[in-house]
Structure formats: C-alpha cells, structure tokens
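Comment thread on ticket #2218

A.B. wrote:
> Attaching the input chain for the structure job we discussed in standup.
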Amino acid sequence: MIGGLLKSTSRVALFAAAGLFMGGVAMPSAKAADLGGDCCADLEERVAELEATTARKGNRKMSLTITGQINRLVMWYDDGHSSQTYYGLDNRNSSSRFLFLGSAKVNPSVTMGFQIMIDTNVGGISSSVNQLDEDGTMSAATNFGIAGMNRLNASNNDAYFGAARQVAWWVEHKDVGRLTVGRFDTAGVIQTIDLAGINMIASPSFTLIGGSLFVRGPNGQFYAMTLGNTVDPASAQGRSELVRYDSPSYMGFIFSASVAEAGDHYGAMLRYAGEFSGFRLAGGIGFENITDKLSTAVLNTNYDFAGRPSVEAWGGGLSLMHVPTGLFVQGHYNAISFGDGSATDGGACSPSAGGGCISNYWGQSTTRKEDVTHWLVQAGIAKNWFGIGNTAVYGEYGQTTGWAASWDPAGRTFAAGTGATGTVAVNGVIDSQTNVWGLGITQNVDAAASTLYLGYRHYDIDITCRSTATNCGGAGAAAGTVNKLQTEDIHVIAGGAVVRF
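C.D. wrote:
> Ran it. Output below, let me know if you need it in another format.
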C-alpha cells in the first residue's frame, strides 16, 4: 500500500499530510502503524485533484512570482460652478496592476530574469473623468475597433485590462551591473523620492487625479482647456522600448542610463540613498533628450526631414527624514526646454514656421511649447502611532509654469469645441502658471499589506494671452492686447486604498 502511494509527484504531499495528523498529537503505536483502511483511502485521489488544479510555470529553471495591487478611490471635485463625486475610480498615481517576475542563477555572479507589468488602462480612471463624463472618453481602437463603443457608460459594461507597462528581460552581474532590454522605465528626469509613503494620494505629478476636468470661467462657461493642459504631463521617467543600464550600488550611489526606440530618446540619472545619525536621505538628478515624433495615421516620407522636436529636460529630487521623530521634508525641481526655434531642433513645430511637428513627449503639442518648470515641496510626520503601521500627515505646495503656452509669438490656441461641444476657445496663450497646495493623511495597514489615504488639492490657474481677433476666452479686446483669462479655482478631494498582493 505504501509503495503504491509514494509516487514522485505525491511524496511531499503525503509526508505533509502525515505531519498534520501527527505533529501535535501522541497517537497509539498500533494506530500509527496502520496506514491502510479509511484514513488514507482517498489521499492519492485528493493529491491528484490538487495537482490538476494548480497553476504551473513552464520550467523549473526560472522562478516565477505573481504580485500586484488594486488601487481604487472615490473622487470629489468643485470647479467653482458645479461639484460631483465619482466612485470606484482607478487611481492613476499608482494604477491597479499585476506583475510576473522571474529570475534564475547562471552562476554565482550572474543572474538572468524578466518582468511583465499589466495595468488597467481605460474606463473610470482618476486622470480621465471630467464634469461631463464620469468614465473618460475612449477611442474605437481601444475597444477592438467596435463602432459606437467609444464610451463605458452602458449598464453592466465591462472595463478592459491590458496596458503593457513593462515587458523586458534583464541580465545582471553583481560586480558590473544590470542590462535591461524591452519595454521598461527610461532613465532620466527625477521627481520627488517618496520617503514618507504618501505618493498614493500626493503624487509628484499634478495631473493624475482630476487632470481632465475642464477649466471654467466666471460665468460658468467651459473653456476648451483642461487642468491637465496647465500642469505637468507626468512624463518623468516614462516607459519606452529601450536598452537600459543600471550600475551596482557604490557607497549608496547608483548610476543609470538608457537609449530608447530609434535612438531618439536617451537619458541618464544618478541616485543616492543612505542613513546616518538618525537621518534617512535620498536624492538624485537626471537628464533626458527626446527628438521622437508622434506617429500619424498616414506615414510621411519626410518624417526625418520635416522638423523634429528637440525636448531637453533635467530634474532633481531630495528627501530627508528624521527617523526617531518621523519628521520629513521632500521635493523636486524640473525644467524642460523645447529648443531655440531653429529648423533642426523643432522650430518647424511652430505654426509661424509653417510646420506641423507633433510630439506627445513632455506635453509637446502641435505648436512648440514654451520652456516650462515644475516643482513641489512636501513636509509632515510619519509615525506608527496606532501599532498597525505608519500614519503620515502632510502638507504640500507646488507650482508649474508655461505648460499651456506656446513659444510662437501668436501664442497657443485651444479651439472652441475641443474636448466637448460648446466649449469656449482660449486664444493666444503666451504664459501660464498653476499654483497647487494640499494636505492629507495616509495609514499603512501592515498586516494586510495595504494603505488607506485621503487627500485634498487646490489648483489656482493663471493664464496670460495675447489676443488675435478676439479676447482671451471671449470677445472684446483689440488684437495684440495682453490680458489675463478669468478662471475659477479647482478643488479635488480623493480617498481610497491600495491593497497589495
């Protein structure tokens, strides 16, 4: 009987089962010797059933780990004329996602591995909802080309999983560093390094919660401009098809560099992390250069000769925490240049140069953007007061400049009807500044690998225009007049939880 049960696939399970029966109970010796009868008659059948329903990886060489998170929130906004609450949105500060990770030792010094990250990409997400659409507009392409299925507002309509954030393999030598090939995070501009654990709600980006809300005027008019048009496009360390190198850590420093796509996106960064005399310090600085263009529906044989953008960006972050008290301060500064106007560095992206150069990188549009800046400072205290995990209370202040403006002397125009029928044009934008302040709280729940969060942000939008035939945002001013667009402040409160697995 024993020999029949101890097959190679069942031996471990049988011993484990025997351990469960005998581990804490002193059983009579005669009974312990009796392995036949009712006690084990169905054990082999049960083990076979478990093996048949267990997920298997493809081989025994490469390890496989499945991990990820669910991050959903409730978002309330007030735009000066209306307010609304949206429930169950995906939090784009750190989206719901799952990862497949694996590695295998080649020898004591060399390891190979892979990483695949898939996240939610459409439907009710915090960066795409606005006053008119609680789901966010979708194209037919993202709905498998199904005509008429460009919104997710029908009852019982399923959302779709499927955005490939990372798909890459890597090889690492412990003394040389790691080489990564595939779709992965680029090396480059660094934003706030979060030591306090608050970025689930207080992201370094200002556009990922509420960024698609329309800016409104004093009479309630909807401008053809969103909050996201006036702030950073969350482009720091974006994702692309690339080759990336990361050095080993040396005295707390790690150097990284990457080159992406056809060599038209490259960058480098230097980061540091260390702890001394009760203080935890993290910082870094990085640089990126992007000359890539957005691919159009109809390809152009003059692609490489019609004036390519030249986006140069640099940015650094510095974070400090006093570990005994939990007091912290952290922040970053970014600066982005869109060229000097010559024909070889993106000058043709300007309408006055007669070009149509389009790029999505760092918020570039059909008109070459004005040089821009983006900075943020956060401070507070993070402490395990309740015994379940760190509680962080914080305040923050930041500013973005130039994001809505064009380098062209005529300024940038947001045409009437853009984004929704009935929106009012904003003409000739030559400068913009958005001030952001906020406060909030996060609560880690260590036993459940989760974080609860609640945060508020206030957006004060300042738009400067040079009028053409009409005033900035309406009729009345003479052509060439510089004036301010009257805008309402935007308030956003968001609260939710991230549950990791």
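A.B. wrote:
> Thanks. Noting for the ticket: The mean pLDDT is 82.
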